[in-house]
Design a protein that fits this description.
Chain lengths: 362, 323
């Protein structure tokens, strides 16, 4: 288990203590407003996550995959995107969803079991959550091939985790992206754990070094540093748009919570590890920077907290009001065009349901 | 003249060419489909005429072919993927079953994936292992996929175009041992919808159901017996055009199902169950099935014993008549 983030290859623009580091190769010139907005994003998505975990504990959601600790990786990369870019997430990219203006309640349908997805991917430039690990990297690569054929300068970004790097599909996506030189950023959030399996079960080398073997650049960024994640993703997207092909970004971060709400990390990792990573919290360092540089005062932080609290309570209320779908809904959208078997089964199901109609009367 | 004699492979080629001419979003992708024209030459000449951006020689990874085709479809393209041989589809099974088949439903109808997966299927060409499989039941068992099989050049020409035009994903089985069979193709004909079955030969004694490569076998069997066989080419396996089948079996009272895939848990089991349910009081004999054995596909020197042939079809016809 690597706890040392002071590695020579790690790109960092903001230390855990809130000190700004300049990197000429990754210039980042943010206005105070932009920095305050990033802070607000980080706090808001942590609050959404907290609320969803609580809703799960209370039985309102069946399961939740927490992003706790990965806020900077998701907000930094998510804020680097243009509206016309396309995101291919896993099931943990709630922070990126926030950046793509997907209403938080729409993330909950899948986890509550009322649908498999609740937003329009084209409207938000944010594809469906993908649960089978790594499959979406190929979709992102194919989408990027379409961008090439359209002559557009849009780009795609594929999110996945450290565990996914062992999947065939991810390696096939690397091959495809490389030989077709597609406009794609592979954004790997290495949160150190694939449920109970540490990174050592997936790789003998740092993940970002895998890219070299496929013929495109790979880099490791401090995944708890929202500035660095923003800067490196901007650079990688710019390279993608200008025909320079894919980049693999390994955002070195830590899953501070359980894999999902059904998981128990006390069975496989030590408390000390979590405590060490808490010192590198992605939100605290931005707060420290804002305070040190007198860019925000108590009023600002109170306002941020109040807004986050409101978002949380709105989400709770909306979750409790989510209706169960009508039974007939399972037949909808199986096919885009008329399908005689679905039509017949749907009709038979309706007849079966209506056969109970009289029972309520007696 | 709108009618010419074409091989089944050439009819597919011309059907794809027409689809590509009519819609610039139609792409061909697969292993060796470009310069070589595919190992069966089904895509011969298309890259030369439409360019490398529309006829894409892919890396050798089937999951990658289907996965990137899904991405292209999300961007508005209509990819036609070639899986080089039936036995090579399994590395792509996850992308087909988990992603391709379900995305329309998962997106509440917002995402359409008009992807065609062409699979040369079946045996009879003396190939090495994994080159002679009949994997249709894996896919008919997956909701969200349309599964069709062409049996002759005219259907190949029209059905491939219909599959490409369809907004649902289509698994398109091609009978590889019939690629070189020739028949007239009328390009101006008004084609039957591709989810409809067709009575290939009218008859009165026994209904024989087949699709893909076995249609020709069953037609040949008909010519070798005095019995009057009604041969139905199912063409579409999912959905199944059940009314055509039921109408026939209610008239003949007897039914034999023929496919190359193993009989046990094969597509014929579904047919037998549905026919029994719909035609119970019309049946003079149980629905009989002729197909492969419950073995892996054997070495090619034995495949003539494994594959249903004219004699095995007629044996089943006799057993049905004598029941």
């Amino acid at each position: 288990m690597t706890l040392d983030t002071a590695q020579p290859e790690l790109i960092q623009l903001l230390t855990p203590e809130g000190e700004r580091i300049d990197r000429p190769d990754y210039p980042l010139d943010l206005t105070p407003d932009e920095i305050r907005d990033l802070y607000r994003d980080l706090v808001n998505v942590r609050r959404i996550d907290l609320e969803a975990v609580a809703l799960t504990r209370q039985g309102e959601l069946g399961i939740w995959a927490s992003l706790l600790g990965q806020e900077a990786a998701q907000i930094g990369s998510g804020r680097a995107l243009r509206p016309s870019d396309m995101v291919f997430p896993t099931y943990r990219e709630h922070g990126v969803a926030w950046c793509r203006q997907v209403e938080p309640i729409k993330l909950l349908g899948l986890f509550r079991g009322v649908n498999h997805s609740g937003w329009d991917p084209a409207e938000h430039g944010f594809h469906l959550y993908t649960i089978v690990i790594g499959s979406q990297t190929l979709h992102a690569t194919g989408y990027a091939m379409g961008i090439q054929r359209d002559g557009s300068d849009d780009a795609t970004i594929a999110y996945f985790g450290d565990g996914a790097t062992s999947q065939g599909d991810v390696n096939e996506a690397f091959v495809w992206a490389s030989v077709f030189n597609t406009p794609i950023v592979f954004f790997c959030q290495n949160n150190q754990w694939a449920i109970s399996e540490p990174l050592e079960k997936q790789s003998r080398i740092p993940l970002y070094k895998r890219a070299q073997g496929f013929g495109f650049p790979g880099l490791r960024v401090d995944g708890n540093d929202v500035f660095a994640c923003l800067a490196v993703t901007r650079k990688a997207l710019a390279d993608a748009r200008s025909g320079q092909g894919p980049t693999l970004i390994e955002a070195f971060t830590y899953r501070m919570g359980a894999h999902t709400t059904t998981d128990d990390p006390t069975r496989y990792r030590l408390d000390g590890e979590l405590e060490a990573w808490k010192l590198k919290d992605p939100i605290e360092r931005v707060k420290a920077y804002l305070v040190k540089n007198q860019l925000a005062g108590a009023d600002f932080f109170a306002d941020v907290e109040a807004q986050a609290k409101q978002i949380g309570s709105d989400l709770r209320k909306a979750c409790l009001e989510l209706p169960d779908p009508p039974p007939q809904a399972m037949f909808e959208h199986v096919y885009a065009t008329e399908h005689s078997l679905i039509t017949a089964e749907q009709s038979a199901f309706a007849d079966y349901l209506s056969s109970f109609a009289d029972e309520g009367v007696s | 003249m709108t009618t010419t004699t074409l091989t089944l492979a050439k009819a597919l080629n011309e059907g794809m060419r027409k689809a590509m001419e009519e819609d610039p979003k139609v792409l061909i992708m697969g292993e060796d489909v470009g310069r070589l024209g595919g190992v069966f030459r089904v895509t011969d000449g298309l890259q030369k005429d439409f360019g490398e951006d529309r006829v894409i020689d892919t890396p050798l990874a089937e999951s990658g072919i289907i996965g990137t085709a899904i991405g292209l479809a999300l961007r508005g393209y209509r990819p036609v993927c070639e899986i080089q041989f039936d036995g090579f589809v399994f590395p792509a099974a996850d992308q087909i079953i988990t992603q391709l088949a379900k995305m329309h439903m998962r997106s509440l109808g917002l995402v359409r994936l008009p992807v065609v997966v062409r699979i040369p299927c079946g045996g009879g060409i003396g190939a090495v292992e994994h080159h002679s499989e009949s994997p249709e039941a894996y896919f008919t068992h997956t909701a969200g996929l349309r599964v069709v099989a062409c049996s002759n050049p005219a259907d190949a020409y029209s059905m491939i175009q219909q599959a490409i035009a369809c907004d649902d994903p289509v698994i398109f089985f091609e009978p590889k041992r019939r690629y070189w069979d020739k028949a007239p193709v009328d390009r101006a004909a008004d084609p039957l919808p591709f989810d409809r079955a067709q009575v290939a030969l009218a008859g009165t004694d026994v209904t024989v159901l087949a699709y893909g490569p076995m249609v020709k076998t069953c037609l040949e069997a008909s010519g070798a017996t005095d019995r009057s066989l009604e041969v139905i080419d199912l063409r579409s396996l999912n959905p199944l055009d059940l009314p055509v089948v039921v109408d026939s079996v209610r008239r003949t009272g007897r039914c034999v199902v023929v496919h190359e895939a193993p009989v046990f848990s094969g597509y014929g089991a579904e047919l037998a169950a549905r026919i029994t349910e719909a035609c119970f009081y019309h049946l003079e004999a149980p629905v009989l099935r002729v197909g492969g054995y419950s073995t892996p596909y054997p070495p090619s020197r034995l495949e003539d014993h494994y594959l249903p042939d004219l004699d095995r079809v007629l044996d089943a016809v006799d057993r049905s008549m004598e029941f």
